[in-house]
């Protein structure tokens, strides 16, 4: 995988302290801890605002995570795209979802340590159902899913439970739904949890 800000020693340390200070000044609490697993898919929800990205990054630094995140291809134009990749970004071509799953599974198989953030909603706009690519990536690679969250109502974010998929996607998605019930995004009306489909 490519070199990122999380691999840059001095800047990584500075960003961690900066993130901890900013979160405290904003009244936010960081909950949970870094998973003991070396490889896992980290889903980030709810995703309802542009504010989700900076808060997610600060929480990652606060928890000492080394992550890659998936973003739409338009976030990776010439010049700025290099910066996005250094920040841990992986450009996603939404028209090639199947190739994305396969490619990410291969990346997990080829690396001894890897954390990939996937927003299951796929967009900050309201959606009728979650995309299930994150599930098939985790199941195909045999890695667990960590449930990351931002609760703007409580001003708290972090990582909740970590679990392995069973292959029964309907059953596993219910576990995920139960975890996110009651968690409020920046724009809660755009978080469509009840209609999660498999």
From TrEMBL:
A Pfam entry, by short name: Acyltransferase
Superkingdom of origin organism: Bacteria
GO biological process: phosphatidic acid biosynthetic process
Pathway stated in the Swiss-Prot or TrEMBL entry: Lipid metabolism
Alphabetical list of CDD domains matching this protein: LPLAT_ABO13168-like
GO terms for MF: 1-acylglycerol-3-phosphate O-acyltransferase activity
Domain Phospholipid/glycerol acyltransferase, first and last residues per copy: 41-150
Alphabetically ordered keywords of this record: Acyltransferase, Transferase
Coiled-coil stretches noted in the UniProt entry, renumbered to this chain: none
Listed name of the protein: Glycerol acyltransferase
Annotated organism of origin: Undibacterium parvum
């Amino acid at each position: 995988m490519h070199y990122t800000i999380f691999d840059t020693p001095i800047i990584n340390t500075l960003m961690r302290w900066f993130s901890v200070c900013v979160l405290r000044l904003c009244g936010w609490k960081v909950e949970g801890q870094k998973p003991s697993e070396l490889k896992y898919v980290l889903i980030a929800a709810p995703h309802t605002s542009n504010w989700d990205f900076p808060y997610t990054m600060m929480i990652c630094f606060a928890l000492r995570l080394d992550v890659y995140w998936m973003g739409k291809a338009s976030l990776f134009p010439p010049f700025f795209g290099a910066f996005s990749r250094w920040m841990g970004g992986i450009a996603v071509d939404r028209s090639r979802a199947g190739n994305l799953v396969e490619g990410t599974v291969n990346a997990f198989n080829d690396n001894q340590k890897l954390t990939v953030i996937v927003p299951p909603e796929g967009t900050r706009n309201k959606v009728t159902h979650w995309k299930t690519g994150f599930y098939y990536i985790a199941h195909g690679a045999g890695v667990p899913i960590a449930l990351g969250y931002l609760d703007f109502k409580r001003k708290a974010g972090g990582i909740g439970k970590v679990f392995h998929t069973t292959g029964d996607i309907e059953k596993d998605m219910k576990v995920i739904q139960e975890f996110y019930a009651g968690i409020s995004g920046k724009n809660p009306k755009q978080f469509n949890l009840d209609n999660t489909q498999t």
